[in-house]
């Protein structure tokens, strides 16, 4: 199991939060009664869901005990649950399943997404945001260092928009799919490498066998990323990062 470090993940908190807010703004529900934040991480997005719908019963679910510990400490008023999100099923239909930057870690989306819809009540909404930057240097440099056929390379876990449409269109009353390419302005010595260390690099570093292998990989990765994302004239770095969004109403 990958060990998540909440403080590293939240180092770029405002940039990581923006896609969640963009997704939340497109949820067509006024007064949902039951909300599940699937893959809630450290709970900062879950807390915003509770703020937007204060009368709703909100549940945050994550597989990481480290993330949930942070969530419980910062937001004790919300209900948190440890569990395998790949196998999650609700004991009763919910109004909103919200998942921000999580489901790309899981495979078999052709089965997963329709199954999640089954946990919604009539009129309920599945709202999903996933990173889709896997063709960019942030992810391709992993293969450049390890070899692109290495088992730890991330591959392309997010499918084409047309695939999600074909899987869900006949199961929903409303379906919206879009992609956004953000331009994050980052500060620091090698901020893009610091960004990926909080997410994409975690399973790679955990999967390497020895500390020497981890250090050698990270040194090579950071050097190549610094070359791929040079600083602008003012010393800041622009990170182009594409994300996939889906809002499906049952």
UniProtKB/TrEMBL annotation:
Gene Ontology process terms (BP): methylation
Signal sequence segment: none
EC number, UniProt record: 2.1.1.144
InterPro entries: Methyltransf_25 (IPR041698), SAM-dependent_MTases_sf (IPR029063), Trans_acon_MeTrfase_C (IPR023149)
Domain Methyltransferase: 35-124
Record-level Gene Ontology MF annotations: trans-aconitate 2-methyltransferase activity
Keyword Methyltransferase attached: yes
Pfam families registered for this protein in UniProt: Methyltransf_25 (PF13649)
Enzyme's top EC category: transferase
Keyword entries, A-Z: Methyltransferase, Transferase
PANTHER family: TRANS-ACONITATE 2-METHYLTRANSFERASE, TRANS-ACONITATE 2-METHYLTRANSFERASE-RELATED
Protein name: Trans-aconitate 2-methyltransferase
Organism: Candidatus Terasakiella magnetica
